[in-house]
């Protein structure tokens, strides 16, 4: 009989890797309620079938598959055709020829979803012990990458009373000689905000003063509400190197296709080594999905405006449903969202007799009403809750009714 085999331990890198968003949504604990499950936690626009892939993109995918030409390994950086399509697509957010010219297709990498782009952008510029300035609240994947690779996550607060703009004074106190980049998410997940052009300029000015590259997550750039204008960091005259992150998960409703991208904007050529580093790190993967990225090459620039307009109308309708919570004065407040697919609530704990933090609110709401919101703690800002605006109004109305009942039950 062979001797017992010793336990196989996981690496420190693996032990440090925890994505709290996944932990809460994919491993959702059972509710004690017999009511139907209502998840306001999801970031998947395909969940209910109300938001669909543009037909032009579906047709392109069928054409690519039937051609039989793209079943092999793609280049790890992505097909040149796809990189050029992304570069051309990004120019729509720039207002002058010179700014458009800064969006070079050779500085585009096609990634396996937006999360892969985040990993490449962060790990190619930082070493263990370095730090990033990250907005709070922020998409939790940024904190997960910091923890996994041994970086320090330094949150700079966003101010709810100012449409979730960055607290510039707080940022000044966080930066030091080991700060590698500033990370911004605009339009915001989880806040549902869209920064004004003057405020984006203020953030760029800060980065100029401190010689900080910018990693700008702009995956929701198409999903700004009526009356709003999106300002990309690419549309400014500055020598600050900027990595634009994006992908097809949201605006063309294809999260499962796993097509993301990054594009380095580097007018003065000071970040060539950074770009080469991202390119080398992309070699650890065998490239993004071949047939899907070629479908994007053929159809990304042909997405009809009517598709985007309909998507935004549905998000605006979803956001409006939540206004009933304000009408009931039930201990939750929010700044009305003006972009992306989310809304961020602030909890007035003085309203409640037995709820003391956002995790407790999350747990009790799920247990009693089978409604899952997400606690602000996982986004870097305690005392808040995130909910989606992408689900159909009838689903959101039922969820809001349960939230109001829950708040009344626990009020003083």
- What order do the strands of the largest sheet run in, or round the barrel if closed? 2-9-8-7-6-3-4-5
Order of secondary-structure elements:
HHEHHHEHEHEEHEHEEEHHHHEEHEEEH
Rg, please?
A: 22 Å
Main beta-sheet strand count, sense and barrel state:
8 strands, mixed
The parts where pLDDT drops under 50 for at least 5 residues are none
CATH top level assignment of the largest domain:
Alpha Beta
Cα distance, first to last residue?
66 Å
Helix count equals 15
Mean pLDDT: 96
**Number of DSSP strands?**
14
The class by helix and strand makeup works out as alpha/beta
User: Which of globular, elongated, flat, extended, rod-shaped describes the shape?
Assistant: globular
The named CATH superfamily of the largest domain: Type I PLP-dependent aspartate aminotransferase-like (Major domain)
Helical content stands at 25-40%
Summarize the structure.
This protein has 412 residues and is an alpha/beta fold. Helix content is 37%, strand content 15%. The model has no long low-confidence stretch (mean pLDDT 96).
Description:
It is an enzyme of class 2 (transferase). The protein is 37% helix and 15% strand. The chain is built from 15 helices and 14 strands. The chain has helices at 12-15, 20-25, 55-67, 80-90, 97-101, 113-123, 141-149, 168-172, 197-210, 272-282, 290-299, 305-321, 323-328, 358-369, 393-409; strands at residues 38-39, 108-111, 131-136, 152-159, 165-166, 179-185, 214-217, 242-247, 260-265, 332-334, 342-347, 371-372, 374-375, 384-388. Helix 9 links the parallel strand 6 (179-185) and strand 7. The longest helix has 17 residues, at 305-321.
């Amino acid at each position: 009989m062979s001797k017992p085999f010793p336990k196989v331990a996981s690496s420190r890198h693996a032990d440090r890797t925890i994505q709290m968003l996944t932990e809460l949504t994919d491993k959702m604990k059972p509710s004690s309620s017999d009511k139907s499950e209502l998840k306001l936690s999801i970031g998947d626009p395909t969940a209910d079938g109300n938001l669909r892939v543009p037909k032009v993109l579906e047709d392109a995918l069928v054409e690519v598959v039937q051609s039989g030409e793209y079943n092999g390994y793609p280049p790890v950086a992505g097909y040149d055709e796809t990189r050029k399509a992304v570069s051309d697509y990004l120019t729509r957010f720039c207002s002058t020829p010179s700014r458009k010219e800064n969006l070079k297709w050779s500085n585009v990498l096609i990634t396996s979803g937006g999360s892969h782009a985040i990993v490449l952008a962060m790990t190619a510029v930082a070493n263990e012990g370095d730090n990033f300035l990250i907005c709070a609240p922020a998409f939790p994947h940024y904190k997960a990458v910091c923890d996994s690779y041994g970086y320090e996550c330094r949150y700079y607060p966003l101010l709810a009373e100012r449409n979730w703009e960055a607290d510039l004074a707080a940022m000044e106190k966080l930066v030091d000689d080991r700060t590698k980049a500033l990370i911004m998410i605009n339009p915001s997940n989880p806040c549902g905000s869209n920064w004004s052009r003057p405020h984006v300029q203020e953030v760029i000015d800060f980065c100029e003063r401190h010689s900080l590259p910018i990693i700008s997550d702009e995956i929701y750039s198409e999903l700004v509400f009526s009356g709003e204008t999106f300002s990309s960091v690419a549309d400014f005259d500055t020598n600050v190197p900027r990595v634009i992150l994006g992908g097809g998960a949201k605006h063309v409703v294809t999260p499962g296709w796993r097509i993301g991208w990054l594009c380095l904007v580097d007018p003065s050529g000071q970040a060539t080594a950074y770009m080469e580093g991202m390119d080398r790190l992309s070699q650890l993967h065998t490239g993004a999905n071949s047939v899907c990225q070629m479908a994007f090459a053929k159809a990304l620039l042909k997405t009809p405006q009517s598709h985007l307009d309909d998507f935004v109308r549905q998000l605006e309708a979803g956001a409006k449903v939540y206004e009933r919570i304000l009408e009931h004065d039930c201990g939750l407040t929010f700044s009305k969202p003006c972009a992306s697919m989310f809304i961020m609530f602030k909890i007035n704990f003085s309203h409640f007799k037995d709820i003391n933090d956002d995790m407790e609110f999350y747990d009790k709401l799920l247990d009693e009403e089978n409604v899952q919101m997400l606690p602000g703690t996982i986004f870097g800002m305690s005392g808040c809750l995130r909910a989606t605006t992408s689900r159909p109004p009838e689903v959101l109305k039922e969820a809001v009714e349960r939230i109001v009942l829950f708040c009344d039950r626990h009020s003083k």
